[in-house]
Write a structure and sequence with these properties.
By secondary structure, the protein is of the alpha+beta class. It contains 19 helices and 17 strands.
């Protein structure tokens, strides 16, 4: 037995601190204008707010955030937000419409990876000061063409649309960078928590700030430890050294189910796992080779074994729970069919390639299973493991062959995934659309780009649904992606931890409601 009595175990972590373990080596930056990885977004969801917010207690529901109300003009081109009064940043500075306007403007001007969430509305570094303006307590945003209004508001819930304390950021500006270097490792928001320390690939500490507009956080601190191994997380949880484990393997989760001191929570999440094949690389740009790869993945076999209780098979790019998601899964492991397709493509003896993968236990198990079944078809795969930021860097630079990746929606609207998996109006290297997955993998989306543009402007919900269903089927069968799984979030917590909301399919983790 690893622990002592439940009383001793429960006392191991401070009563006012939530101690978690997860893999956080994917964090590239903590600037809301740049952060685009799961761990960083989780942190920022608790340190910043936006004009429009999601309600953790009512999944998918939009609520007023730093804006008390909003409206759209009859032509659908001008959105107006009236700011709430009396809200302050962590610094004590009052939140102004000017801060909101500046925050959106700096995202567009810095043009980091998630900027496309805003620039898709026609905002550019050259026009954004005219398109996004503050006057008194009112913010106006002009866009270049009408979109479904709900889609625009959903985009305003994304972390990239967070309102940043202009005065604090500009006090730390260096060489006209809008405080970018400072904000990579500091926070300047209105959230329930403030970042007190951050050690890359090691830990971070959040500290509650009094007077949060949604109500003060129940716990004084959040301490996140970088522990990528599920077995190590399990041991720490059993000993009482942590309160929550967020990266358990199926074996570790199953092993904890008999522990009377621990509760296992499962929640369908929006993350989609997929393989992307670089279309600059022969023979990965051959349609028959791509089809063969689709038949060399043992989707159900992995779900029944290494991914048990953590994934479901999902072969459309929208997660289940989103408007227009499809649930049919026509691809399955069929080695004979794959070999025939490779022979038709001119590779009867297969070929060699590499598969880049983040070096964490679950993804490595997935990669090894894929390596094995591709090998059965004659495709010899060399695995290229690396830290999350390193693997993402290669992917964003179009330097990969095959890469095993996951994608989480940025806002609760189907356009969030359609606009990155199936939209790519400029496939040139010069476009540098690093936030667009189709661009990252050098895939020309062809007619799907127009389908995506048409669907996001359609105001009839049922017509929109049908449009997303159709484009997903085309994408599933013809793209450079092999979409495989949707994640089931498995979180293990000590029984004294309550009200931990992990976000489901539409949001990120919420710490300020947590009790111990």
């Amino acid at each position: 037995m690893l622990g002592a009595s439940p009383t001793v175990l429960a006392a191991a972590t401070p009563a006012d601190t939530l101690v978690l373990a997860d893999g956080i080596d994917d964090i590239v930056s903590l600037d809301p204008a740049e952060a685009f990885e799961f761990s960083g977004i989780d942190l920022l969801n608790n340190t910043y707010d936006s004009l429009v917010e999601l309600d953790p207690l009512k999944p998918g529901e939009l609520i007023p955030g730093l804006a008390e109300s909003w409206s759209v003009s009859d032509d659908g081109l001008t959105f107006t937000f009236k700011m709430k009064s009396g809200i302050t940043f962590a610094s004590g500075n009052p939140v102004r419409a000017e801060d909101a306007a500046w925050s959106l403007q700096r995202v567009v001007k810095l043009n980091k990876t998630p900027a496309f969430i805003l620039t898709q509305f026609g905002l550019t570094p050259e026009n954004v000061d005219e398109m996004v303006k503050a006057e008194g307590d009112t913010l106006t945003i002009k866009i270049d063409k009408p979109f479904a209004p709900s889609m625009f508001y959903n985009c305003m819930t994304a972390v990239v649309a967070s309102v940043v304390d202009k005065e604090t950021a500009m006090a730390n500006e260096v060489n006209g960078d809008f405080g970018y270097e400072w904000l990579k490792t500091n926070t300047a928001g209105t959230g329930a928590y403030v970042l007190r320390s951050y050690k890359p690939q090691d830990s971070y500490v959040l500290e509650a700030r009094p007077g949060y507009w949604r109500g003060d956080a129940k716990l004084k601190r959040v301490f996140m430890r970088h522990v990528p191994e599920g077995s190590a997380q399990r041991l720490l949880l059993e000993k009482g050294d942590i309160d929550v484990a967020r990266g358990l393997t199926p074996t570790d989760a199953q092993g904890l189910r008999g522990n009377a001191d621990v509760t296992i929570d499962s929640d369908m999440e929006g993350y989609i796992y997929y393989i992307a094949a670089n279309q600059k690389k022969d023979p990965l740009n051959n349609p028959k080779v791509l089809e063969a790869i689709r038949y060399l993945v043992d989707y159900q076999g992995m779900v029944d074994t290494v991914l048990k209780d953590q994934m479901i098979v999902q072969q459309g790019f929208l997660p289940r729970g989103y408007l227009g998601a499809i649930t049919d899964t026509p691809y399955h492991l069929d080695v004979a069919k794959a070999k025939a397709l490779l022979a038709e493509a001119g590779f009867p003896n297969g070929f060699e390639t590499t598969l880049s993968v983040r070096n964490d236990p679950l993804r490595m198990e997935m990669a090894q299973a894929i390596q094995n079944t591709l090998g059965q078809g004659g495709i010899k795969v060399t695995l290229k493991p690396g830290a999350g930021a390193e693997v993402l860097g290669d992917y964003r630079a179009r330097n990969h062959d095959l890469t095993l990746q996951s994608w989480g929606p940025d806002y609760p609207d189907p356009h969030t995934n359609a606009s990155t998996f199936a939209w790519n109006p400029d496939n040139s290297d010069a476009a540098k659309r690093t936030g667009v997955l189709a661009w990252r993998t050098a895939w020309d989306a062809g007619p799907l780009t127009k389908m995506v543009d048409d669907a996001v402007q359609e105001r009839d919900t049922e017509k929109r649904r049908a449009m997303y269903e159709e484009m997903q089927k085309i994408h599933r069968d013809t793209s450079a992606f092999v979409t495989m799984f949707q994640q089931i979030g498995v979180t293990a917590r000590r029984n004294n931890v309550g009200n931990l909301y992990t976000g489901g399919t539409t949001d990120q983790v919420t710490y300020w409601y947590v009790t111990k």
